[in-house]
Amino acid sequence: MIRAATLEDVAALARLHAACFVQAWDEKAMRGLMESPGILAFLAPCGFVMARVAADEAEILTLGVELAARRAGRGAALVARAAHDAQASGVRAMFLEVATGNDAARALYRRLGFREAGRRKAYYAASEDALILRADLPLRKSQDLD
User: Fold this and answer.
1) Range of the domain at 57
2) Is the model's pTM score more than 0.85?
């Protein structure tokens, strides 16, 4: 079950982020984001997504699914929920950055209709580039996924 996250969920969001990323965002960082204008955040028992809406665009800030729950469609469902709510508020396109070496995430985003729009050199740690991906909304429907 995916639900909208609230300020009461910052500890859960921080715990999930720490379970998914080496450089984790702590509760203070999560609270700061949750209190920012235009933030969409969704939580599932094993994952989360956070996005920022600005005018008719949205950016996925972070997406994480616990290791044991990966490859079961949860990441796609979280992105789809964020995209759906963003579109309902007038968003026409969604962006994100993904590490060039993160093949699993790149495949997920490709299935959802994201395409490369640019590259940020040495974005992750100074050693790995980020691909800037873009998708028009609505995202591909589940029956259209590869």
Assistant:
1) 3-144
2) yes
